Amino acid sequence: MPEVEPGKNPDAPSEAELQDEFLQEKLLGEEGVHPRMRLTRVHIRLGRRFFSVWWLLGIATVMGIVLVVAAKLYAASGDGRGFLARHACVPLSPPVPAGMPAFVRWTHLLTFFFLVIIVRSGLQVLADHPRLYTKVHCTPGREWLRFRGPVPTDRVWTAKEDTITLTPLVGLPGGRHTIGVARHWHFSFDILFVLTGIVYAAFLFSTPWLHRLLPTHASIVPAAGSCTVTYLSLHFPSGASGYFRYDALQQLTYFAVIFILAPLAILTGLAMSPALDNRYRWYPRLFGNRQIARSIHFLVMASFVLFFLGHMALVALTGFAANLNDITLGTNHDNLNGFALWLLVIALVIAFNVWAVRFSWTHTRVLQRISNATVGRLMDLLFDHSAPRVEYRRSDISPYFWPNHARLPDSPEWRQLAGDDFRGYRLKVHGLVENPVELSLAEIEAMRKQAQITLHHCIQGWSGIAEWGGLPFSTLIELVRPLPDAQWAMFYSFAAGGESGGRYYDSHSMRDLRHPQSLLAYEMNGERLPVLHGRPLRLRVENQLGFKHVKWISEIEFVHHFRERYAGQGGYNEDHEFFGYRDEI
Ligand SMILES: Nc1nc2c(c(=O)[nH]1)N[C@H]1C(S)=C(S)[C@@H](COP(=O)(O)O)O[C@H]1N2
Ligand SMILES: [Mo]
């Protein structure tokens, strides 16, 4: 295996080959095991049965009609007329200077643009594990929402096989199992979204505009009720008075979107991080568990989309031209200038999205590098110093633990070792160490043993709790004594990483490997590690996502930097699927 000089790397596939392989495998592949995401395939579980969301949409439509009829009847009744007269649906906020201030107009525009990218890339992430659960375990059949059929039970079904394909019209970048690329967009635009939010909040809290948003008087509740009845009975107040003064329902809705939905999106997003969850047990508990946080994250997205649709409909119904002047130019005229600007913005956002899809498929490495240098740095800053330490109880162990890989080991060498129950197995530890060793499984088992019950976080979205027993990596470090120049350790697998045949590998920093919970595991849930989960040896590095936990380890090499091996991005997924090499979320 790789015994190469730094910088000279005969194993490296060419970048053009990698780019081409990515396009062929992930975008142009035929529909087969990886069906397209389609509304007809979305099912929601009630009790034991799954129902098509068409039912839900049908019920929602019927309920909508019932609500409109009820509102109309109530508004025409004596009681209703009295109520509407007492609490008129009129602008509530104190008179403010006409027109939207510049900070609202600009942050509004940017937030819209950023959210389009965040939602599209988020849907792409969802397509990589198209099931949502309420329990942290992710047992097939127990999901509350799924975007494809049930998990086959007659064969091993990996999470990778479970991924579905998204059209680039919906997902960014589209295709299937392009989660690495989707995450680059998602996280970089998350940062822009948060920064915009901070600028907005800074302005908001230092100007009187705050009072148009913060509900301060209980009378807003009946007033919002009155507005609800008014809108539901299909009476839309004209925008003549200028929508920069909000009525009660508007104020409450905007308040909820800005002060509840947006923070919830950020907090639930963070609750999916292995670095955070496995350091602070209380954090995912804020939402129940990691999967509830993920479900809320999805529902927040859906609420943003619904809000957007309702918001646009009302903007159009209550004086489109004047409203658009308000929100683009800050004026209150009836001319079409705002409308023209709005069209221009929509065209630019569409053009950016078209470009983003193309760029994702043609310059994937550039995107990955930019993301490593920005998002990766920030993740490091936030999480790299915290050692994971959370442990669960035996009773928390997941009844089902998704297997995940593209290929099982199938080399003659591995077959021979497996046939002999790994008696001939020698873990080769070499590279920049004072004391290179070759260890049999019996020797490894005779060294210090540690067991831990931890939560596994797969990049695709599923999680599971298992007990892992094995050799603390720090003990191995003491044995082999890495040289001062050794900053990374490479873990090579017996298995290929994908169809292209290159072997699976990944790398870890010395800091991560010294964490007390970093293990070379040979037991799972008190029994010998099953082949499916990495026998004879697999990694546990609990502050990192699952793909960094190499299974079927054949050798470990200490190097100066992972750049010296293969395509130089730090691992098989980093090389071939353009994942970030720091993945603490
Ligand atoms: N050799 C090898 N190791 C691997 C993988 C793989 O494809 N090949 N998949 C990784 C991923 S993406 C995850 S989530 C975990 C899954 O471990 P499990 O199969 O025990 O659940 O293994 C990791 N280790
Ligand atoms: Mo994974």
Please characterize this protein's 3D structure.
The chain has 585 residues and is an alpha+beta fold. The chain contains 18 helices and 16 strands. The model has no long low-confidence stretch (mean pLDDT 94). It has 2 domains: 34-128 and 163-361, Transmembrane di-heme cytochromes, Chain C (Fumarate Reductase Cytochrome B subunit), CATH 1.20.950; 394-576, Oxidoreductase, molybdopterin-binding domain (Sulfite Oxidase, Chain A, domain 2). The radius of gyration is 27 Å and the shape is elongated. The chain has helices spanning 15-26, 53-76, 78-86, 102-127, 179-205, 220-232, 248-270, 274-277, 282-285, 290-317, 320-328, 337-362, 364-383, 412-419, 441-446, 473-480, 510-514, 572-576; strands at 43-46, 49-52, 131-132, 145-146, 165-166, 175-176, 426-431, 437-440, 450-457, 463-472, 488-496, 503-509, 519-524, 527-528, 538-540, 553-559. The chain is 44% helix and 13% strand. Strand 7 (426-431) and strand 8 (437-440) form a beta hairpin. A 5-stranded mixed β-sheet has the order 8-7-16-11-12. The structure holds ligand MTE and molybdenum atom. The ligand Nc1nc2c(c(=O)[nH]1)N[C@H]1C(S)=C(S)[C@@H](COP(=O)(O)O)O[C@H]1N2 binds at residues 401-406, 458, 493, 495, 504, 533-534, 546-547, 549-552.
